[in-house]
Design brief:
It is built from 5 helices and no strands.
């Protein structure tokens, strides 16, 4: 009895084969003519309500477009706003801040390293220039 009761209370969704079984079952024999008529009337009413809701939704969507046009809002403006909002959201995350800080620090280190390399190269060129001038001028001085 417990397994049977538990089966009735299960909350798992129907699987495709279960849906096929339910769809293929003929429950109409279990209903009286009066119940069938009530269900048919309810079905017609639901279909009418769905049609009405679709019409109302369509009218509201058209009205929304009209209001946006009057306000000068278009797809491009909305995309810009969404992008700006998303970019702001990204920039305020802890991960972005940490990454930005790390990359900024790395950039400063790289700039300092390149500066040091540039200074060293300049010094070497200066030393080479002095050495070349000195080696050129020495023979000329000896001839005098």
């Amino acid at each position: 009895m417990e397994a049977q009761a538990r089966g009735l209370l299960e909350t798992e969704p129907l699987h495709e084969r279960d849906e096929d079984t339910v769809a293929g079952a003929d429950f109409s024999s279990m209903l009286s003519e009066e119940e069938k008529e009530e269900l048919k009337a309810e079905l017609v009413q639901l279909e009418d309500e769905i049609t009405t809701l679709r019409q109302v939704l369509s009218a509201k969507e058209r009205h929304l477009v009209e209001i946006k046009q009057k306000l000068g809002m278009n797809l491009m403006n909305e995309l810009k706003q969404n992008f700006s909002r998303s970019w702001h959201d990204v920039q305020t995350t802890a991960a972005y801040k940490k990454t930005h800080e790390t990359l900024s620090h790395a950039g400063q280190k790289a700039t300092a390293a390149f500066s040091n390399v540039g200074t060293a190269i300049s010094k070497k060129f200066g030393d080479m220039s002095y050495s070349i001038r000195h080696s050129i001028s020495m023979p000329a001085m000896r001839r005098k």
